[in-house]
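Reference record
================
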Amino acid sequence: MYAPRVNSFETWLAAASTLIAAEAAPPLVDWGDTDGIESLFAASHAATPSASTPLDLPESLRQRLEEACCYLGKERWSLPYRVLWRCLHDDWAALLPGDADGSPFARRERAVRGAAHAMKGFLRFQERPTNTHSPRFVAWYEPPHDVLQAVARHFAERMGNNTWLIATPLGSANWDGKRLAFGPPLSKPAQNEDLIEALWLDYYRSTFNPERLNPGLMQAHLPGEQQRNLPEGRLIPALISEAQLGQSRQSRAPLPSIAKNATCANGREARLSLGNELENCRRCSLWEHATYPVGGSGPINARVIIVGEQADDHDDLIGEPFSGELGRFLESLLNAAGVAREEVYLTHAVKHFRFESIQLQRRYRAPTPAHINACHYWLEQELAQVPALAIVALGRSAAQAVLQTEVPLPMGEAPLVMPLAEKRVFVTWHPAYAQKTANPQARTAAQAHIVASLRHAWQLATSLQH
């Protein structure tokens, strides 16, 4: 049993030449790549035959073997050796797609070519300050396969005398203007937006066409794993969300200032004067990726205040609380409780949307206690200015924001009522849980509890006001 250890195509080809010369059939060679651990035979039979003359291979076969050896996965080195052994013994069916070895071999070639093509298209160089030493440009990329050498040669041919460095978790490539050198893996370079990147982001925003949006095709050409290393990646989820709403940053008229009071049809003020402070809030980091801060809305003399957890994706794009699908669901629960949406004041404990970008979509993330505490300043103003005697806290985060302490969600059917000065706080489930939890019994129970809490809060507020 032979046990060569290789780490590149060149070392693999040298070992394969030696093994072929020694007539070492594939079953007699343990490349250490089958199960991710050393073979039981490798420790006691690790002998490798002496060096021999390099194999004289057709260029097309050599290129195909090199591509297959760049594949990171099970049998990285074993499969190409089996194919090479069979070809050199006149069994060229090993290269056919329908063959037991040929099919996975061909799939690996396609995967590696695709990874190299993606790296050429998605790698972004960043220019370093002029007062720093070379390289002038640096880039970070996370390829799924070992394609750095092939792609580095591509950039060396195209960037002239400009010096650059490409860092990856697998290795690094450095071009000094004349010579290409490869080195060990490097950590991700610091990302500082330069003038070129800022211009590119402005251009990307201005040319994004919401009328031609095709998320499926976009996902095919720009997979989610590529976004995190692209400067435009952080723009895409918001642009898609806006397009799906039939709006874009270019065409949507700005919302009225939060500092101004809107007026309901019945003449009562529908928005508090929180001033320009909320629009310019920097109390936590959520504002950095938000579209709008989402203040409360509803009559300023409402009998009941409903506090949600945080602004969601739709709220963030519109600037209104409970404005999308979740808002329509809450309205149905209000109707079941005999309460009109126009009669209550709606707000969120956290005024900005917390999310992460996954596969071109903005995915909800729960706010942290730090976010809740930072936004309590705004909630405090709302609770002080709206003289409602009953507050309905939707979910654990909302209850924590209102009561300033952790409160367990109710387990029984009866409403959970907590005192807050002269007010009463009804703690219940969040509508998102009542709408989407997988357990149908839990959904029914949560919806019933929300409706009961809304009904009791309205009845209490009405009786106390009279």
